[in-house]
Amino acid sequence: MTYQFNNQAREIEINKYSTPTPWMNYLSNGTFHTMISQAGGGVAFYRSPQIWRINHYRFFHLPTDRSGFYTYIKDGGDVWCPTNEPCKTKPETWKAAHGMGYTRFEAGRNGVHAVATYFVGKYENALIWNLKLKSETDKKITLFPYVELGMMEFMRELQWQCYNKHQLSAYAIDDVLVYRYGVETQPKPEETPLVYFAADVPVTAFDCDRDEFVGAYRSEENPQNVEAGGCTNSTLYGGDPCFALQIDLELKAGEEREVNIFLGTAMTEEEIKRCVSHCREKGFVETSYAALSAQWADFLRKFQCELPDADVQTMVNIWNPYQAERNFQFSRNISYYATGTFRGVGVRDTAQDILAMVPFDLCRAKDKLNLLLGQQYRDGHCNHYCFPIEGWEPLARIHSDNHLWLVMAAYHIVMEEGTLDYLEEAVDFYDGGSATVWEHIKKSIDFTMANLGEQGFPLMLASDWNDMLYKVCREGKGESIWTSMQFGTVLHQIAELADRMGENGQKYLDIYEAQKKLVNEKAWDGAWYRRCITDDGTFIGSAAEPQAKIWLNTQSWSVISGMGAYGKAAMDSVKQYLDTDLGIKKIHPSMMTDYPTKEGNLTCYNKGCGENGSVFCHANTWAIIAECLLKRPERAYKYYHQLLPMVAQAKAGEWRYKAEPYVYSSNIFGPESDKFGLANVSWLTGTAAWMYLAVTQYMLGIRPNWDGLEIDPCLTAQMLPAKVTRVFRGCTYHITITKNERAFIPHETGREEFEITI
Questions:
Q1: Residue whose C-alpha is closest to residue 715's, from 624, 581, 643, 648
Q2: Which is it for the CA torsion 353, 359, 360, 362, positive or negative?
Q3: Which part of the chain is the Glycosyl hydrolase 94 supersandwich domain (predicted)?
Q4: Number of H helices, E strands in the chain
Q5: Is 673 helix (H, G, I), strand (E, B) or coil?
Q6: pLDDT in tens, 151-170
Q7: Are 709 and 755 spatial neighbours (Cβ–Cβ below 8 Å)?
Q8: What's the CA gap between 116 and 383, in Å, rounded?
């Protein structure tokens, strides 16, 4: 098998380097970040991949997964890498492992054994690769750690490299290599760091010029200086830079030698000297790795479970919260699928990511929500996404849903914390002035109420959660039935908060009832709820339409919002028309490119792809929640279980599925595609946060409310008994669930542990 989970170590072990796509991991200390694959390819960046990207990574190009973080081992005439790639000569034994914030490679060839562990520690902004080498016989070998550098502004490099690359410098300060990016009119030059490359053992020689190290008509597979056996001490003042070190080692039989390489950033040459000196201190690497392990152990202990279903337990305890944290940190910025060139922090995306962070780290959740609230205008609407690190102008497009996610995130924070203190914090509006968080989220409601359409539903504006629907509202008249349901969901939440704030919550419930009436009188189509209304008054998502007759989101949210008088029947239609063995399609049937008209077509996606009939995993999570609210555990379990990445991959086949079997993807090609089962846009997707909520708060049913923990499970027999440890308001709750019965645990201040069986 290509992989196996080692849950005790919180790792996935990968036994074949040539996975169908690069299977990635994210290494980060919050400032310095690295995306690395199972074969050592990847990209490092300081704070932002858009303006401070350190090395080249050639997305989508052949050969796959180049370049990366490599160490060539020259053993006589033999040259190989512990990462397996990029050399043509491969190790005789090899495996990789992705863990919590680190990636490890174990390889051997001709009696030389290497363990290479990559991670980013908390004490310096540097990617550390720790090499442990052992030989069965006495040997002299040469190591060549190597990184191909690029211009920090990836888009500028694509457009202007012929001029700007001559403003780059790479040189040595003693045995430390330094890269300086200083290009005219770059953003934030005063915040742009120097990049350094160093080892904690003596360096024989180095190279800073890629062409000198690699040679003409060669690649990472066979650099000429590795083949020749030595670097040439090349520097670079204009051209294509790299970092390469030559380290000559003598290995005694059975003796282990350790070498540490540091790829890091610092603001000045003096600071580089201090950082490298710190990195070279005895015990620095071990202490950094131990701190990383302790950090993740503390993070994950907040929610742990024991379940009869091993795959579910693996995802709940390890990989889902790990992925959700990485989503929270990186939004949708950079992955193997997203080049990290145009998206910053999406308000809609990040507000949803906050929901999964709330049980783990309230401080981080509040800080991120404050950032999003700072993108809100005084009238209540929000920018669509923003660039707080880069300082660029935000995308100011107004969607019908962005501002409403802020209410939901604030509500979750208050329920987790059990106080109203956060609502009293002051946050600036984007267009000037300041208000409390409470005033901000009330503005969200006001904005929706000020933008209702002719039929009474919220105006679509630029679009709602389904971005493809922007074409139904170009004249400003299109209305979103789904946004009405989202609106209804947060109206209940803000009504509860209003009552607790000593204000009138009933006024929000009155709005809710008015929207609910519209949903059932105008949106019900006879077997499901319609999706939206176009500028000309056409109801999209109706049996009367020739295409895209039923849409998933209005069925699931009719239940989530509590607005759907026919919610059960609507979800039955989901099962009948949308469900597959690899997840629930977003729409049925897929659209042609002439719907609703040739000029105003909704999509150019092929059938079964993306927005047009794929299994949109993010939207599947809401169907799971809906079935839990309807108390149908078998169906909730089916919808959840079939999208577990290891389960979906096994069903589709590794080659067809392609993506990682340990993290969720955004979508899977649907049955109307010739590549049904192809998963793509993995790692950075709203699927992660909502899958975590679906399984922990609705299937296991453990939800915080103002007074304590509500337990309302919806579990099948194969998920029982379930044992859960949940840290909540400083108390550790040990909960054993033997049946689907509702219970409530009032929170007691000062209590450290609590045990309950239902």
A1: 624
A2: positive
A3: 13-280
A4: 20, 40
A5: coil
A6: 999 999 999 999 999 999 99
A7: no
A8: 43
> What are the tens digits of pLDDT across the range 679-717?
999 999 999 999 999 999 999 999 999 999 999 999 999
* Joined tokens for residue 468: 């493809």
Q: How many whole angstroms separate alpha carbon 656 and alpha carbon 648?
A: 10
What's the burial of 616, exposed, middle or buried (CB within 10 Å: 0-12/13-18/19+)? buried
Residue range 240-256: mean pLDDT, rounded: 97
* DSSP assignment letter at 457: S
Q: How many CA atoms lie within 13 A of 126 on its CB side?
A: 31
How close are the terminal C-alpha atoms of the chain, in Å?
39
* Separation between Cα atoms, residue 722 and residue 401, nearest integer Å: 36
The whole-angstrom distance between residue 37's C-alpha and the CA centroid of its chain comes to 15
> Rounded distance, CA 364 to CA 351, Å?
12
Which tokens in the block code for residue 316? 């709940």
Q: Which residue has the tokens 């959740």?
A: 365
Residue (of 185, 284, 188, 204) closest to 244 by Cα position = 204
Contact 208, 236 (CB under 8 A): yes
Contacts of 647 (CB under 8 A, 6+ apart): 311, 641
Answer yes or no: is pLDDT of 449 > 90: yes
Q: Report the SS3 class of residue 482.
A: helix
Separation between Cα atoms, residue 300 and residue 305, nearest integer Å: 11
Q: Which two tokens stand for residue 749?
A: 């201040």
CB atoms within 10 A of CB 680: 20
Two structure tokens written together for 455: 């039929």
Cα-Cα-Cα-Cα dihedral sign, residues 287, 288, 293, 299: positive
Instruction: Calculate the alpha carbon distances from 689 to 4, 458, 554, 692 in Å.
Output: 24, 26, 20, 5
Q: How confident is the model at residue 24 (pLDDT cuts 50, 70, 90)?
A: very high
Count of residues for the chain?
Answer: 758
Per residue in 281-338, pLDDT (tens digit) is 999 999 999 999 999 999 999 999 999 999 999 999 999 999 999 999 999 999 999 9
CB 148 within 8 A of CB 248: no
Give the burial class of 268: count Cβ atoms within 10 A of its Cβ; 0-12 exposed, 13-18 middle, 19 or more buried: exposed
The pairing of strands 753-757 and 731-737 is: parallel
Q: What are the beta bridge partners of residue 466?
A: none
What is the Cα–Cα distance from 679 to 20, expressed in whole angstroms? 11
Exposure letters 16-44 (e unless 16+ CB within 10 A, then b):
ebebbbbbbbbbbbeebbbbbbbbbbbbb
Residue 725: strand, helix, or coil: strand
Residue 351, C-beta contacts closer than 8 angstroms, at least 6 positions apart: 369, 372, 402, 405, 406, 408, 409
Contacts of 281 (CB under 8 A, 6+ apart): none
Alpha helices in 466-598 (DSSP H): 481-500, 506-518, 552-560, 567-577
Question: Is the Cβ–Cβ distance between 84 and 93 less than 8 Å?
Answer: no
The model's confidence at residue 342, banded by pLDDT at 50, 70 and 90, is confident
Q: Are the C-beta atoms of 39 and 65 separated by less than 8 Å?
A: yes
Question: Which structure tokens are listed for 622?
Answer: 């809401």
Cα(637)–Cα(620) distance, rounded to whole angstroms?
12
* CA–CA separation, 705 and 204 (whole Å): 63
Residue ranges with strand state E in 589-676: 615-616, 665-668
The helix (run of H) or strand (run of E) holding residue 23 is: none
Tokens at 251, concatenated: 């290995």
Report the predicted TM-score, pTM, of the whole model to 2 decimal places.
0.97
What is residue 33's DSSP assignment? Answer: E
Taking CA 684 as the corner, what is the angle to CA 703 and CA 39, rounded to the nearest 5 degrees? 125
- Are the CB atoms for 183 and 204 separated by under 8 Å? no
CA dist., res. 731 & res. 728, Å (int):
5
Please tell me the number of Cα atoms within 13 Å of 120 on its side-chain side. Answer: 23
pLDDT in tens, 565-620: 999 999 999 999 999 999 999 999 999 988 988 778 888 899 999 999 999 999 99
